[in-house]
Design brief:
With 414 residues, this protein is mostly beta strands. It contains five helices and 30 strands. The relative contact order is 0.14. InterPro entries: F-box-assoc_dom_typ3 (IPR013187), F-box-assoc_interact_dom (IPR017451), F-box-like_dom_sf (IPR036047), F-box_dom (IPR001810).
Length: 414
């Protein structure tokens, strides 16, 4: 009776008053998503009167750690990737040798070197530590078997672990951990009989759905973080099968769509051609692979490679490379943003780079390899159980300090 009375009170609340409450409380994105599930009236009021507004995604550049160096993460403040202002995120003590499983609404999910997972809120220096799934065998050592996702409909954040056993890389079940769930534990979700995963293609999460490729490289599997259903994606022939010879393939984020990068190095040279294919078609439409871009890297110097998994940012193709330096000087890792040009003959956007024409250099980094992710800076909260971690980066002047001290072009740490 009390619940019914409370329901009547909320049902009688004018839409203007409800929207004003939302605006004053400014709930996190996940809370707002859960409020939409209460009833159709609330959903319509939120969608029409108080939609989520956030800045465009920026690029997060992540450098995996090693026994001698901690992992690092940088975000670019500018949407156009001018490289003038870059901030290093303070990942805390868990950054030593960690790998990045994914980012969602400003939260960062790290696969820790000693096992387990850490979800970080770097703005408040909060962390939620999660132990590794049980009975995962040797697959727990592969960072590519972890993924981090946010489902907009349910408002839930989930960590997915895809354990691959043995040479056949067969799958018996996947493991799921829900942030803020009823139980602080991993759950096993069964998969269809005969399921498998080819780790070389990696895992990719797009809009609350995680994808991976079967061991025969012929099919793509999806895991929907909303209903936790594992299913085959009906598509035309995978682009990887269109190539012959020596090539490498990896799932890619192409402007927020599921893509695949297929790279074929040219024998006895430092050249390579990389094609970027995008899966087009939604709903009942036939889903087909369309070649969207091509990166042609030529020359005698080590060729540029596309940045993964986020390959495209705005109108630019993201690549990395090490330009030649005089003498035995160590070559830095350069991050490039290249704008493709449509070529009618190749029927796609093309980027041509070489030693003489390397493209627009955004920034140099001291690191061995670089991964790129989409990053939305929001004030999302971690659930109960999160703890504060100590800073591990020496504080420097921020942009607000620059106005008082007269300095300029100083990188920020947060």
């Amino acid at each position: 009776a009390a619940a019914a009375a409370m329901g009547d009170i909320w049902d009688g609340l004018p839409a203007d008053a409800f929207v004003e409450i939302l605006r004053r409380l400014q709930p996190p994105i996940s809370t707002r998503a859960r409020l939409r599930l209460v009833c159709r009236r609330w959903r319509d009021a939120i969608d029409e009167r108080a939609p989520v507004r956030r800045a465009p995604a920026t690029v997060l550049a992540f450098f995996p750690g090693d026994p001698w160096r901690r992992s690092r993460a940088y975000i670019f403040n500018e949407h156009d990737l001018s490289g003038d202002r870059v901030r290093e995120l303070d990942l805390g003590a868990n950054a030593g040798g960690a790998s990045l499983a994914g980012t969602c609404n400003g939260l960062i999910c790290l696969r820790c070197e000693r096992g387990g997972v850490a979800v970080l809120d770097t703005l408040r220096r909060k962390q939620l530590l999660v132990g590794p799934p049980l009975a995962t065998g040797s697959s727990a050592r592969y960072e590519s078997t972890y993924s981090f996702a946010y489902h907009a409909t349910t408002g839930q954040y989930k960590i997915l672990h895809v354990p691959c056993y043995g040479a056949a890389r067969r799958l018996e079940a996947v493991h799921v951990f829900t942030l803020g769930g009823e139980a602080f534990e991993w759950r096993q979700v069964p998969v269809p009989a005969g399921s498998s995963c080819c780790l070389h293609f990696g895992l990719l999460t797009i809009k609350g759905v995680t994808y991976w490729v079967t061991t025969d490289a012929e099919r793509i599997v999806s895991f929907d973080h909303g209903d936790e259903r594992v299913a085959l994606v009906e598509t035309t022939l995978l682009p990887a099968l269109l190539w012959t010879g020596s090539y490498t393939c990896h799932l890619a984020d192409v402007s927020g769509k599921l893509g695949i990068a297929v790279c074929r190095p040219r024998a006895w040279t430092e050249s390579a051609d990389t094609e970027l294919w995008v899966l087009e078609g939604e709903g009942e439409e036939e889903r087909v692979w369309v070649k969207r871009y091509m990166v042609m890297s030529h020359g005698k110097t080590p060729c540029q490679q596309i940045a993964l998994p986020r390959v495209v940012h705005g109108e630019h193709i993201l690549t990395t490379g090490r330009p030649l330096k005089p003498g035995w000087q160590r070559r830095p890792l350069c991050f490039y943003a290249n704008q493709p040009r449509h070529e009618t003959k190749l029927r796609c956007g093309v980027v041509r780079v070489s030693a003489r024409s390397p493209g627009r250099e955004v920034r140099e980094f001291d690191g061995e390899s670089l991964q790129t992710f989409a990053y939305f800076e929001t004030w999302e909260h971690l659930p109960a159980g999160a703890t504060t971690y100590e800073p591990t980066i020496k504080p420097v002047l921020t942009s607000s300090d620059d106005d008082h001290h007269g300095s300029s072009n100083v990188d920020d740490h947060i």
